[in-house]
Predict the structure of Multidrug export protein MepA.
Amino acid sequence: MENSNTNLGSESVGKLLFKLATPAIIAQIVNVLYNIVDRIFIGRMENGEVAMAGVGVAFPIIIIITACSYLIGMGGGPLAAIKMGEQNNDEAEKIMSNSFSVLVILAILLTIGFKIGKEPLLWMFGASESTIGYSMDYLNIYLIGTVFVQISMGMNTFINTQGFATTGMMTVAIGALINIILDPIFIFGFNMGVKGAALATIIAQGVSAIWVLMFLFGKKSILKIKKKYMIPKASIILPVLGLGISPFIMQSTESLVLIALNSKLQMYGGDLAVGSMAIMSSIMQILMLPNMGVTQGAQPIISYNYGSGQLDRVKKTFKLCLLSCFTYSTILWLLLMIFPAFFVSIFNKNPQLLSMTSWSIKIIFCWCFYVWDSNSLSTDIFSTWKSNNIFGFSST
């Protein structure tokens, strides 16, 4: 049976970080497969380059939806962990139950808002006559599953917060496995194209959301979602929003960068350049996952020990996390500089696209990993003790 949070304040920091970071890394890798696997299969469709560009134009909307789950999940999770460290589980349950309600409300608002405004937004984001159809087809279906994204990603943080890292990993592993199985069936078997990719994704996310709710309403969870605490209260939600704003800003600014890039790339390089950017974004997402997993594994350790006043363990965890992330980034940088074409060919083997993207990778990725490490590590770690807002703004 998986251990609860009871060892977070006493077990060896190195052993604990490894125990929590390993499933978190696996979960991050599997989680990104929701969109990455879609792109790999889409890239192998007829007119795959154009379809890839079309879905790439929709990325900013997908990123904003994900950012909203971070706003609540990464704001509420550390606060709940701090309350657990203070031996105040009742207050932690209030935070978790309020967070659940707000995530559902956000999902409804996002679905309605993007359903109404998606077409003008897509044109603004860099769509062309040849790509707008693919963008619309993908989003029309993807937006139906917005509530699943909010619950599976936002509430999974509360599973990890309690020390159930393996259960948190299974949340995304189950969904990703379903997505990988359904993608080729829907895209090629049923000849649904990008619609099939979106449908496979929301079915997978729906199953993940059910898994999360079954656990948080079930007997194994230390904290329970309780109906009596589900009515949102400003005194609970405002601190959650205050803490979650930094990861939200970091994720949202990525969307703004993509909007600006896609618009100019479409103007000067056409659909091929937009497709190239979609591939580079996918590569970045995949390769930075281990670092994200390490910081997520460190969060419950830091929050719990901060809440219980064990600041020496907080400092030790931070230093170990920093060393791990920078070591990995150095190895990763070397591989990208030497073998860029290998990573690009995973998505598409079009000679023009391969050449353009391989050249671009060396320029864009020559420095960004260390900058990303600094911003992400600061935001993720400092968010665990309510001191992260300055780091969120530094990401802009």
In short: The chain has 17 helices and no strands. Residues 89-124 form the longest helix (36 residues).
